[in-house]
């Protein structure tokens, strides 16, 4: 947990080299945080990149990373022109790295503890002594779940054991092979996992929510392009192509980001830092 907090304190350094298309026109990079493996993210977001290219009249390349910390480091170095990021990265991206907020998925994010529908575990207390698989500790759902488990009388690392894996789909793989009893995940991934793994899931615990996944842009993108990007995402529900893209992303649509909405996330990050300073 401390590792990602240290990353939040890093200052921007190094020069940024823009991607250049074959015709010499600078291309934009569209980074998507690796909540799924790259092979699963590409068919979701490569079409979004293509739509961005059509709208802006220049190449837009889909990019991700193999691990959360690698993606965050590239974000810190401002390598992405456009980035879709998880909520806990909004404060450093906007407040420290200089990215500009545009839109966010309308759905808030909560943390779910999920397990196979036929699991013999029926209550939260049945998890006592069990392992719960999680995405990397950078993910907000991990911290949200840890706090809720503690509130409900199950102290992580004492009563239950949280083990982190590279992505959420790899977490559910651990459940399938019996290495973990359950997995922590955001709600929007439940249908994705059920479809890909041919698995019916049941929710054992749900936390309160925070604002969801947001789209930010680097200020080196001209204002006219920023406006076009914003309008594209806001209008995806207006046509069949856009609705298909939303279905791929598992969201009902995008709305404009209000910076103050993420104050609750800033407070959450501050709480975690305070807990770490207290020796937890």
Model description:
The chain has 280 residues and is α/β, with parallel strands linked by helices. The chain has two domains: 2-108 and 211-277, Periplasmic binding protein-like II (D-Maltodextrin-Binding Protein, domain 2, 3-Layer(aba) Sandwich), CATH 3.40.190; 112-206, Periplasmic binding protein-like II (D-Maltodextrin-Binding Protein, domain 2, 3-Layer(aba) Sandwich). Helix content is 39%, strand content 19%. The chain is built from ten helices and twelve strands. It has helices spanning 2-8, 38-56, 68-76, 90-96, 140-151, 168-176, 190-197, 223-234, 240-249, 263-277; strands at 19-20, 26-32, 60-63, 82-85, 100-105, 112-116, 131-134, 161-164, 182-185, 201-206, 214-217, 254-256. The strands form two sheets. Strands 1, 2, 3, 4, 5, 11 and 12 form a seven-stranded mixed beta sheet that branches. A five-stranded mixed beta sheet has the order 8-7-9-6-10, with helices on both faces. The N and C termini lie close together (10 Å). The model is unreliable at 1-21 (pLDDT under 50).
């Amino acid at each position: 947990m401390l590792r990602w907090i240290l990353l939040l304190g890093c200052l921007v350094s190094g020069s940024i080299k823009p991607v250049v298309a074959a015709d010499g026109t600078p291309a934009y990079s569209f980074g998507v945080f690796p909540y799924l493996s790259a092979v699963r993210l590409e068919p979701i977001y490569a079409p979004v990149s293509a739509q961005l290219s059509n709208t802006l009249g220049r190449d837009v390349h889909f990019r991700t990373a193999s691990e959360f910390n690698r993606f965050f480091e590239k974000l810190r170095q401002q390598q992405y022109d456009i980035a879709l990021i998880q909520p806990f990265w909004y404060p450093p991206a906007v407040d420290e790295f200089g990215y500009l907020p545009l839109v966010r998925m309308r759905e808030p994010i909560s943390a779910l503890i999920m397990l196979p529908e036929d699991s013999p575990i029926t209550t939260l207390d049945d998890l006592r002594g069990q392992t719960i698989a999680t995405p990397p500790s950078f993910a907000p759902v991990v911290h949200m779940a840890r706090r809720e488990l503690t509130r409900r009388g199950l102290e992580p690392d004492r009563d239950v054991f949280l083990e982190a894996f590279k992505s959420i789909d790899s977490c559910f793989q651990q459940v399938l092979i019996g290495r973990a009893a359950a997995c922590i995940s955001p709600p929007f991934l439940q249908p994705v996992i059920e479809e890909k793994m041919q698995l019916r899931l049941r929710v054992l615990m749900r936390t309160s929510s925070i604002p969801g996944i947001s789209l930010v842009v680097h200020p080196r993108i001209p204002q006219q392009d920023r406006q076009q990007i914003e309008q594209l995402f806001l209008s995806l529900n207006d046509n069949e192509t856009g609705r298909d893209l939303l279905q791929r992303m598992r969201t009902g649509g995008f709305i404009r980001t209000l910076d103050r909405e993420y104050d609750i996330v800033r407070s959450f990050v501050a709480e975690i830092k305070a807990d770490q300073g207290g020796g937890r």
